[in-house]
Amino acid sequence: MFTGDGKGKSTAAFGMALRAYNQKFSIGVFQFVKSPKWKVGEEAVFTTLAGLEGAPAVEWHKMGQGWSWIKKKSDGIDPAEAAKQGWDEVKRRLANETHDFYLLDEFTYPIEWGWIDIDDVCHTLTHRPGTQHVVMTGRRAHPRLIEVADLVTEMRKIKHPMDEGRKGQKGIEW
């Protein structure tokens, strides 16, 4: 788990996914806040790699509207319902041992907002079969998530250009 207010949580998780990919792991990425309209750099890289002969594909699922603070329906999409459906799909895949590596990006937010039940998450993760790896990202990880995780890293912000009003930078923030 990568949590905290600092930059680099998703970047670190995608670095782990790249290592897993290199070992031919089956990978499922579930982005709980990112909009399907967003074209994130990591997805583009994995799509390019999957186009190489003999390379595995990475399954990609986006269930959000684009920003962690948007919690209302937009374009007919209920983000709470999308998050619940996404978690149900992750649970199904864990039970079936569909992937070797799961990246649950921005997963702490739907838990914090009460859209996904923390007891269900902890039970599912603790009792998943096999040797599946689950990496989660997001600020304010629930203490119970931290307790059941094998690895937890907290990213602490000391300074960020956005604090000075600078906008996100192509190739840096996306």
TrEMBL record:
InterPro entries in the record: CblAdoTrfase_CobA, P-loop_NTPase
Domain of life (superkingdom): Bacteria
Pfam family, one: CobA_CobO_BtuR
Gene3D superfamilies: P-loop containing nucleotide triphosphate hydrolases (3.40.50.300)
Keywords in alphabetical order: Transferase
Listed transmembrane segments: none
Molecular functions per Gene Ontology: ATP binding; corrinoid adenosyltransferase activity
GO BP terms, alphabetized: cobalamin biosynthetic process
NCBIfam families: cobA (TIGR00708), PRK05986.1 (NF004637)
Protein name, per record: Cob(I)yrinic acid a,c-diamide adenosyltransferase
Organism: Corynebacterium pyruviciproducens ATCC BAA-1742
